Amino acid sequence: MSDYPKDLKYTRDHEWARAAGASVKVGLTSFAVKQLGDVVMVELTLKVGDTIEEGAPFGTVESVKAVSEMFSPVTGTVKEINAKLNEDPELLNQDCYGEGWVMVVEAKDGALSDLMDAAAYTEFVASAE
Amino acid sequence: MTADASLRRTPIHDSHVRLGGRMVPFAGWEMPVQYEGVTAEHHAVRTACGLFDVSHMGELEMRGQYAGAVVNYLVTNDTSQLEVGQALYTCACNARGTILDDLIVYRAGDERYLIVCNASNRDKMSEVFRKAAEDHCDFEDVSDRTALVALQGPRAFDVLDRAGADASRLRDLKSFHFRDAVVANVKTTAARTGYTGEDGVEIFCAWEDAASLWDRLLELGKDIGLKPAGLGARDTLRLEARLSLYGNEIDETTNPIEAGLGWVVKMDKGDFVGRDALEGVKGAKLARRMVGFEMTGRGIARHGYVLRDAQGNDVGVCTSGSPGPTVGKNIGLGYLPAPMAAVGTPFLVDCRGKNVDAVVVKTPFYKAKKADKG
To answer: What number of C-beta contacts closer than 8 Å exist between A and B?
Structure first.
């Protein structure tokens, strides 16, 4: 099984979160992307400036075969959206922890304590398989 | 993926796992949905060739003096004109004229017919044919000992060239014809049929020989681009070719006429199950029609999505939809009211709460360039 980056936190819905101060970058894990297959469309239901609750859906990612919802790992205000995914949704397949990031949220309280670390997520994925 | 003990495995299961196939439940079977990826496998079939394991499909045999008459009574197409070694696509309907299954009927001998049905309908069709055979001919469900692999794509026959002299001569088979052939040292029956819109063959063999045939073909075709292809690619390929999928475009609530399968209903062949009902359908105005469409807005239609007219009224349903990797557009099939079925008619698809623009287009979405299928 793949190695999940140690500096990230993970949700049970297979999003990752990278905190830099109050700023939290959000994306999908390699496990999620692999399950989806070839990603052909990423669509966010919110825009920069919108507020989002932890656990709330914020968009969908579609592969050739499937549609999957994305859920926010944090509560806060959307600061940035990766517009590149509009044109190149396959960035998610190619580099889900880098170029394929989905959005940046200014976290309300900055706490990602409820999320899993890489070791816990690895175990979580193994038990789901 | 949790292994489900109730799911059946094809004889090629171990090879799928070894090749990195992602195994999913399908019609009671554990089947590979993809290996390296749906898109790559799709393109391999369009530009070189792909190998599919379709051993889950059902195979029924009817034998005896009256086998031909019984088969012809159960299906909508006319099988009475089939020569030995010839096959025919058809529907089987119920008395209401709606579709029990779509089938290929192979005339294997003067008094012997092989019927291939969908895996999801195997039990139902097995019962239909068994009952109809009673007192008239012999019936046997040979699904459990019959494996089936499909070798599809423009380079399919280049692979067969390497699979022995007999296999090499399969090039001469005409479309919808079949014969016994030794392929890669395995005794098979090979038919020039498929479900991808490409040229190629579907190869029947004994259950115990299938893994060896599969492994050997992949090895022989490796350097000419042969790839194992899963159910995912099979679905996008058949959709581009506008081939119906049972459970999506057709089922027991749809009749062949509205589904665009009127060409397999032969009213002049004599009596058959569903004939009266279908005569009624043909005599009346069709309420709805199967159409092919393209998304002109940003969205992908999926099975079950509601179709709306320009005013926003619910008027139909999408039966299949996905990106078409070869046509490079998001495409779909669905039922629309007959007055809206003309090519060029704009309508809307409800993509999870958002109305996205679509337009009726000509089908098939994709047609293979070289039609040298005999």
So the answer is: 35
Chain centroid offset of residue B77 CA: 16
Cβ distance B323 to A64 less than 8 Å, yes or no, reads yes
pTM: 0.94
| Interchain pair A65, B39: CB under 8 A | no
Q: For chain B, say whether A1 makes contact (Cβ under 8 Å).
A: no
Instruction: Please tell me the distance from the alpha carbon of residue B239 to that of residue B261, in angstroms, as a whole number.
Output: 15
ipTM surpassing 0.90, yes or no?
no
Going from the C-alpha of B369 to that of each of B46, B198, B199, B373, the distances in angstroms are: 10, 9, 10, 11
CATH number for the domain whose boundaries are B8-54+145-240: 3.30.1360.120
- A129 contacts chain B (CB < 8 A): yes
The per-residue pLDDT string of chain B (374 residues; one tens digit each, 9 = 90 and over) reads 455 778 999 999 999 999 999 999 999 999 999 999 999 999 999 999 999 999 999 999 999 999 999 999 999 999 999 999 999 999 999 999 999 999 999 999 999 999 999 999 999 999 999 999 999 999 999 999 999 999 999 999 999 999 999 999 999 999 999 999 999 999 999 999 999 999 999 999 999 999 999 999 999 999 999 999 999 999 999 999 999 999 999 999 999 999 999 999 999 999 999 999 999 999 999 999 999 999 999 999 999 999 999 999 999 999 999 999 999 999 999 999 999 999 999 999 999 999 999 999 999 999 998 645 43
Instruction: Collect all residues with Cβ–Cβ distance below 8 Å to B25 and sequence separation of at least 6.
Output: B4, B7, B31
Structural domains of chain A sorted by starting position, each given as residue range(s) with its CATH number in brackets: 9-108 (2.40.50.100)
Nearest-CA residue of chain B relative to A59?
A: B352
**Cβ of residue A47 closer than 8 Å to a chain B Cβ:** no
Which residues of chain A make contact with B352, given a CB cutoff of 8 A?
60, 67
How far is B74 from B53, CA to CA, in rounded Å?
A: 28
A37 touches B at CB < 8 Å: yes
Residue B189 forms contact with A (CB below 8 Å): no
CATH pick for B285-374 out of 2.40.30.110, 1.20.120.140, 3.40.50.1110, 3.40.50.620:
2.40.30.110
